[in-house]
Amino acid sequence: MNFGITITIALVVGTVVAGQTFYLFTLENLKQFGALKAIGVTNWRLTGMVLLQAFVVGLMGFGMGTGMAAAFFEATLRKIATRGIILMWQSVTLTGGCILFVVIIASLLSIRRVIVLEAATVFRG
Fold it and tell me: Whole-model pTM?
């Protein structure tokens, strides 16, 4: 039970941190998104741009984390304290699913901000 609570808290905190990061990216680039809207780029295309960035960052993080975990398990394979602990493909798959969930949830607020952006606000002061 305690391990499940720990995982739940980690997912919530990870989602909030990732969401805040993507939202800050969006806020920093609102002028560019507004300019793209002003020249006729559709909301679907802008949504795709935000999602592409989120998925690339998520994939890079997943790859680096999985690589480091695999290297750790390989390095400690013959140690007495960690003997028998292996990285199972089911764990990697479940972790990938969790990362996908976090990326999608974290991107929603940023996508909403880009969709409701008025293109004319870019040209004001």
Answer: 0.78
